[in-house]
Amino acid sequence: MSSERRDSYRFGVEGQACLASSCGKKIQVSNIGAGGSGLVIPEGGDASFEKSLAIRLSDDLVLEARVAPAWISSGPPVRIGVRFCDIGREAMTALTRFLIERNEERSRRLPRLAALEPAMWAGRQPLLQDLLSYYLLRCKRRLAVYQQDRILPVELEVLRMTTESARRCIVTQPVWGDEKQFEPGASLAFSFEGTSALCHFQTAIWRVAPGIVVLLLPDAVRQVAFRRSPRVWLPDGQRIELLYRSQRVLEGFVRKTLIEVSGHGLAFEVQPDVDLLFPGERLGQVLVVLPGGLVEIEAAVRSLYRRQGLDGFVCGLQILGFASEKMRLMWERYVFAHAYPEVGIGRVDDVDLAWELLVSSKYVDEATPGLRGPLTQKYLESWRRHTKNDRLGHFIIVEHTGLPASTAAGSLLYPRTWLVHQFGIDERTRKQDRRAFFDVARRTYKSMQHLLANIADIDFIVIYADASLRWNRLTYTGFLERYPHPQECLYDEYQVFKHHLESVPELPGEGCEVYEADDADRRAISAHLARSLPAIETEAYCYGPDEIALDGFTADCERLGYERARRILVARDRSGVRRAAAIVETGEEGVNIFGLLNKCWLVYLSAGRSDDSRAAEALLGAAVMHYRREGKPEFIFIRRADGPARETLEALGFEYVAPGMRFLVRQSALPAWMSYCEECMGMIDG
Length: 686
Hints:
By secondary structure, the protein is an alpha+beta fold. Helices cover 27% and strands 38% of the residues. A hairpin with a 3-residue loop joins strand 3 and strand 4 (36-41).
């Protein structure tokens, strides 16, 4: 027989006192779920059994059901899977409670956390002490305690961190339970709630005294289970209705009121004896009645648990999919509005306000003074157009004390990559106290990252910033030190130069011919980049042989009224050898006022010296002429470590701007970065 199709979680009970009987024989039960059970036939036993089965779930609880075989293994021992065909209401209620208890027990086991990826680590002692002090002392987070994989009936509150016998220690007291469960020298695991994550560590008990448990400072803290979206509790007046079809409640829709929402889940109260929902069960048609219309989702029961203050249980649903993209955006915007009530996703009417915030934040001061007048109009025109199409970009407006305080934006850069930019906090907020500044900064970072992780349909984000600023180094390099997954992030530094195109000097470069790459050139350059660059960059920047010129992407952008293009210029010497290439990109000046959509950089291709000055000079001259033909007033040159000398660039008309940095991150790592940024701002904000 083929394997059975399971419609809910199965919980292993093999080795426990959970037996079945059929035809007068005792059969070991290996697992059980809402739809069926796994059986183990004793050695030498007969694999045949009647259609009726009695499973003893506990000393006083027996489940009687009609069953049908779903599969059988040859063994030994012989294992059989059966489906429940007919279970009475009383038996179904008993099974519901039994499975909920098993689900609660499983959710309290630590090995699931230890296996979760991705993870962040804190291992350096100064950082470790700061992290634990922040969460356990300042934020008053309590410690859950595990022995092997079982949670102990005790919870600890941290009183202080101290030194005893030259050992760094954490002094705790039991909030409930008592210290008698702890033995000096025993190694235990501990967990606590972090910032949109769960933190856990392993350490030993140093000593135990009446009402006191002293732990050794652990070697490291591991953070896992990062949330892409916060869970939002809905006040009574803002709760909405959910309807779903149940295979056990056949009369139309079951109606519930949502009490909690997030980007990928929702929760409502249930009575297990009445609703008969099981952990892992996939529900039928599910409808959410939002103020703007119905949203149809595909969902499964993720959890069933008791919550303090509620009479019954809470059912948590995991959203598996939406009936349409429009419905997905409707849901995501609803969650965003409730998660960040003081943050608005920009509309056409907000574009002027966003510009005013950028001016007040001094962000506009980075633009060339002579271009600020025309740039204002270009910014307003671009963003009024972009706000009408979710594919092109978003900006946000953050309020503080009822007044606009900051803005940030994300824009389409490549087919699967967005540029995050134009982060500015207005001067009024900057001049307030430190607490106000960090409050606004935290909400701006968090809400923008939430938008990118949930609303924007992307795979990567990239950020260009000033490498000399301490905050930028903390935000990006600090994250990489704690997030050991290099395939998901990239950080590098370079120098930023600008060329103002009012006048074009004579650019040397004799001995090299510059031409636009043909198909063979593009394939050769693509192969070179694949060998020399991290995979995340070649994927995010579309360096594959069939997409490196961005032809299809450029055509799609034109249809959307958006300017984005890439040209690849090649320099070869008199013998026909490709020496270097320039990747030259153009875009609307108004999208990013610093000019990040009009930039170029060099790629050295020859096997000789990386700094091929003649090829570089020839390519830079060709780039200048390209931007002039495109009508651009200026462009950025990204100089990497192997690029032309600063003196050479300045002689060619380029002006040094600042040390720059790039942070490229895969969307799957965004929740961890969101957690890290919020944690950093919380720790810095005194």
